[in-house]
Amino acid sequence: MASERRISQVATTIPVRNVQALAACSADELTAEALDRYIRPDIDQDAVLEEHSDELPVIDLGRLLNPESWEEEAAKLRFACEEWGFFQVLNHGVPEEVVLNIKRDIQEFFKLPLEVKNLYAQRPGDLQGYGQAYVVSNDQKLDWADMFAIIAQPREARDMKRWPAQPLTFRKSLEDYSDELKKVAGSIATTIGKILNIEPELMDDKYAVQAVRMNYYPPCASMPKKVLGFSPHSDGSFFTILTEVNSVKGLQIRRHGAWIPVKPHPNALLVNVGDLLEIMTNGRYKSIEHRVTINAQMERLSISAFHNPKFDGVVSPVLGSTTEKVLYKTVSVGDYIKYQLSNKLDGKKALDHAKVDM
Ligand SMILES: O=C(O)CCC(=O)C(=O)O
Ligand SMILES: [Fe+2]
């Protein structure tokens, strides 16, 4: 109930259909009218530059953890955060089995009958439940996706009641995955802390919360090029670690006004800088805008792990030099995330709210 109050205080929600069920309807049910709410007239507004996919920065976590190669790899990480706001992590040390287990269970979960999945839904728009996992306002076109989100940390605070009983191993798989990702997040955060010369404990349990969202993007046979799985947005987090569950592409990142598709790499974790890290670095690290496109035949699944500061804390810009102009205000994490959720997904608009008035 608490979450219901929270969501309704900050936003308008509208009832949404389960997209997986909609996508499974027969062709004559999927009329232009039925799909109208999903159709994006502006999808082709900016170029998609396939040829730049190979340029995405890659960070080797093993080298980052080795004192001998640390400096060189940290310089790459800094470059990636400043110039791209996005990088791939290889040699991340997450055991293959942990990744395979969570991938398998998420695929199984989304295959369950709608009635079963709905048992875990709070209500449309609720971040904690199964369904369209974020809040939309009435004039927004809907995303072609279903989501299941859970606050995965700290372990003891995880909500047992809402935990899906199927597949049987789902809970353990997610807990293992979440613990492993916490380690990866810790290594990244420690490196960023060292580069910025700030508190290395940034990602300790005391300071950080991890939220995990599982995203399911059904195929759209009739008009795949006209719908979006995820509207262009930036994440409100410090940073987000994304795992692509199957090898169906769809994620695109925004760079110099165009979209660059990310090629799924089975062993990579994808990391993007979020708004709170952009604020903390006074804009030197870029919270990258991204979106998800849809395939005509194949479903896509992904897992986003958001690494956030504690909701009752504040984030202040740390300047890189004494001559640097302050661009961002100190923000309350709780207020920022609330504000971010209350706005329809619209690129990086929420960040404007945190900018110092010029
Ligand atoms: O599914 C993806 O590739 C992206 C998901 C995403 O952007 C998010 O969960 O914030
Ligand atoms: Fe995102």
TrEMBL record:
Q: Does Ribosomal protein show up as a keyword for this record? A: no
Q: Name one GO molecular function term.
A: oxidoreductase activity
Ranges for domain Fe2OG dioxygenase come to 208-309
One Pfam family it belongs to: 2OG-FeII_Oxy
Q: Which UniProt keywords apply?
A: Iron, Metal-binding, Oxidoreductase
Q: Which family does it belong to?
A: Belongs to the iron/ascorbate-dependent oxidoreductase family.
Protein name according to UniProt: Fe2OG dioxygenase domain-containing protein
Species for this entry: Urochloa decumbens
